[in-house]
Write a structure and sequence with these properties.
elongated; six-stranded parallel sheet; single chain; alpha/beta; three-stranded antiparallel sheet; 210 residues; 11 strands; Rossmann fold
């Protein structure tokens, strides 16, 4: 089964993924990059980070796709162009929390039958505090689980992905709300918080002081 690397928002998951993929490539390994179709913060097949680093995904995973089939299609396309069949060593999936349980279980085919290491990067819970379907299955089945730490504005460890709308933290609503530029312009955004300040509805130092 895959490796699962998770954190809160703004912790640098995508940056860490691209760094690790680059390390594999530097050592002569062939890797694939993938993103989920629900991640529309960057257009098309672009994988982007908050510091501006961008890479092109080899494929984009939609709700009904099986990752093993997308890998095989990518290999076949390369074979047609180059006449050489690629031996993929590792797969890196960004925003893996959006995977379905069926897609997570399909990663067993990727790892065991196709002999490809799979690394899934994503959030563990929604802004309501509930686990994402994909993350829940990854937490239960992953070969290894690693947390990338992030901090709240108060300095404590951040464990919650808080969503702010119109100046207030929201706790209910549709589980998937993408942090697009349009949403940010409307005053909607995500911020990492410790559980104490999430429960208090406080997301800035000035609010706590007042």
């Amino acid at each position: 089964m895959p490796h699962f690397i998770y954190s809160t928002v703004n912790a640098g998951k995508t940056l860490e993924m691209l760094k690790t993929a680059h390390m594999y490539r530097e050592r002569g390994m062939d890797v694939l990059l993938a993103k989920h179709a629900l991640d529309v913060r960057f257009p098309g097949d672009t994988i982007g980070t908050r510091i501006g680093l961008k890479r092109r995904a080899d494929f984009v995973v939609s709700e009904l796709d099986l990752v093993s089939e997308l890998i095989e299609e990518t290999i076949e396309e390369s074979l047609e162009k180059t006449g050489r069949r690629r031996k993929i060593d590792a797969l890196f999936i960004d925003e893996a929390q959006f995977l379905t349980s069926r897609q997570v279980m399909d990663l067993e085919v990727v790892v065991d039958d196709m002999d490809i290491q799979a690394f899934c990067y994503g959030l563990r819970t929604t802004y309501t505090g509930q686990p994402f379907e994909g993350s829940a299955y990854l937490m239960n089945t992953a070969r290894s689980i690693q947390e990338i730490s992030c901090i709240c504005f108060c300095g404590r460890k951040a464990t919650v992905n808080a969503r702010v709308e119109n100046g207030r933290i929201v706790y209910r609503g549709e589980p998937v709300k993408i942090d697009t530029l349009e949403a940010q312009n409307r005053g909607c955004f995500y911020i990492p918080l410790c559980r104490k300040h999430w429960k208090q509805g406080v997301y800035t130092l000035s609010q706590e002081v007042s």
